[in-house]
Amino acid sequence: QVQLVESGGGVVQPGRSLRLSCAASGFTFSNYAMHWVRQAPGKGLEWVAVILYDGNNKYYADSVKGRFAISRDNSKNTLFLQMSSLGPEDTAVYHCARALGHYGSGSYDPWGHGTLVTVSS
Amino acid sequence: QSVLTQPPSVSAAPGQKVTISCSGSSSNIGNNYVSWYQQLPGTTPKLLIYDNNRRLSGIPDRFSGSKSGTSATLGITGLQTGDEAHYYCATWDSSLSAGVFGGGTKLTVL
């Protein structure tokens, strides 16, 4: 079955960096755009970034532009999110999600269970 | 402040119908498809509706979606206590070149 499993979260000090991974299985990873979506504790959903199927096009939320970088390795069916200059506002559960149809459709299915990133000194 | 505006909460009795609105602009809802997500307490969001009004496989027909101009609506009929959850609308914003979510609506089934 289609499965997405995130890893790499943890507690990190403000200003430091962290790299998240998302291992995909059960589908042809290289055919799909992939997204990162985050949810701060007790808050709503916030879209973070998308990378198209071939990795040549990427888009970011203004809140992370210039600090986060999305990438993928289609040979390893893995999605990444490199996060730098982290601040307390980046504390959240980070989910990877597969695009359903066009990358700009707003449709994400399925979602991984997420990995918690806590930015704290 | 979310780009898409949803009411913070709605409520209705079991068996009744409820609608949840999602208001945007021409750069997002007005020119892009809308999706709806259900997030039960302590769980990962689940896609219910995509492309404005298409139900994902396995989603009961009690759930429906519609769009008119720069607004979209999620409808739920025959409310059940198990429908208590947060509901989010989502789309793409062509001006921002970014995905956007509504702030979420908490549904209470009284």
Q: Per the principal axes of the C-alpha atoms, what is the gross shape of chain A?
A: globular
Uncertain parts of chain B: none
**SSE ordering of chain A:** EEEEEEEEEEE
Largest sheet: number of strands, sense, barrel closure of chain A: 7 strands, mixed
Number of strands of chain A: 11
Oligomer: heterodimer
Distance between the termini of chain B: 28 Å
The overall average pLDDT of chain A, rounded, is 96
Main beta sheet of chain B: 7 strands, mixed
N-end to C-end Cα span of chain A: 40 Å
Report the count of strand segments of chain B.
Answer: 10
What share of the residues of chain A does DSSP label as strand, in percent? over 45%
Which whole number gives the mean pLDDT of chain B?
97
Rg measurement of chain B, Å: 13 Å
Structural class from helices and strands of chain A?
mainly beta
Most extensive interface, chain pair and sizes = A-B, 26 and 29 residues
Q: Flag low-confidence runs of chain A.
A: none
Question: What's the tally of helices of chain B?
Answer: 0
Strand content of chain B: over 45%
